[in-house]
Write a structure and sequence with these properties.
Helix content: 25-40%
Number of domains: 1
Number of helices: 7
CATH superfamily: Nucleoside phosphorylase domain
Low-confidence stretches: none
Number of strands: 11
Radius of gyration: 18 Å
Strand content: 15-25%
CATH architecture: 3-Layer(aba) Sandwich
């Protein structure tokens, strides 16, 4: 069944000011999973409803490991978002992915620890497929939009997510290269996992800020340089999102990800925790009744 688009955009470093929404309104949205990174800003881009959330909060006050990913995804779901686009800074593990380039991610490796990676748990167990964590439809549209805006864009890459906040050692950087990773970042997991549990198609466009730590000729990653590259790319990233919105089909055709929870719940109905079920009203209410 087709319907209207409502694009959620989670912006990382350099995009805290938003993406230039038309008729923008800032709204505080409560979540049973705690406080989100901040209020959402909702409006339109090229006539398409869009809702923006700054991942690290105003002034970049929240480090990657302390982002409340559950609340962020839950809040966007409560806003009626149908699809989710993530924009973030990344380090490059390959020479051809240069600082200033854009990379459309298609696979993820999770090396984070201690982060809550699921909405489900004791009292309501559920397992969703994450073999292909990125929505192919959104991925293709983002690539086309980035190229339309003149961004040097790579169409496929594996992203390894680390805790941070420190950047990698040289040994770690080379290890990730050996695993087949192309880029590195600190926020895509568990964000992508939670988006799938919330039945939100997800795509990630990374903006390369540095070469991580694998190049012996470089001194290593410097935060000041990362911020400088991000600020230079912020306007281009906002244009890419606007071009992406303008190119969306008039009607949104259903995605298989819209029904990711159809057969995911394993806990017998009589054994389900009513408190957890109430918290999951936005994320999983479609299947929990």
């Amino acid at each position: 069944m087709s319907g209207p688009w409502h694009i959620g955009v989670i912006g990382g470093s350099g995009l805290a000011a938003g993406i230039g929404l038309d008729d923008a309104q800032e709204i505080e949205v409560a979540s049973p999973f705690g406080a989100a990174s901040g209020p959402v800003t909702t409006g339109t881009l090229a006539g398409v409803r869009c809702t923006f959330l700054a991942r690290h909060g105003a002034g970049h006050r929240i480090p990657p490991s302390d982002v409340n990913y559950l609340a962020n995804i839950d809040v966007l779901k409560r806003c009626g978002v149908t699809d989710l686009v993530s924009l973030s800074a990344i380090g490059s593990l390959h020479a051809e992915m240069e600082p200033g380039h854009f990379v459309a991610i298609d696979q993820l490796i999770d090396r984070t620890s201690g982060r809550v990676g699921s909405f489900f748990g004791p009292g309501l167990v559920a397992h969703v497929s994450l073999a292909d964590p990125v929505c192919a439809r959104l991925h293709a549209l983002l690539v086309a939009a980035a190229r339309e805006e003149g961004a040097s864009t790579h169409t496929a890459a594996t992203y390894v997510a680390i805790d941070g906040p420190q950047f990698s050692t040289r040994a770690e950087s080379r290890l990730y290269q050996g695993w087949g990773a192309h880029v590195i970042g600190m926020t895509a997991m568990p964000e992508a996992r939670l988006a799938r549990e919330a039945e939100l198609p997800y795509a990630l466009l990374g903006m390369v800020t540095d070469y991580d730590s694998w190049r012996e000729e470089d001194a290593g990653v410097d935060a000041a340089n990362v911020v400088a590259v991000m600020h230079r790319n912020a306007e281009l990233a906002a244009r890419v999102v606007r071009s992406f919105a303008a190119a969306l089909p008039a009607a949104r055709e259903a995605s298989p990800i819209d029904r990711a929870l159809d057969h995911a719940a394993m806990t017998a109905p009589a054994q389900r925790d009513p408190v957890l079920m109430a918290k999951l009203a936005a994320v999983a209410g479609r299947v929990l009744g």
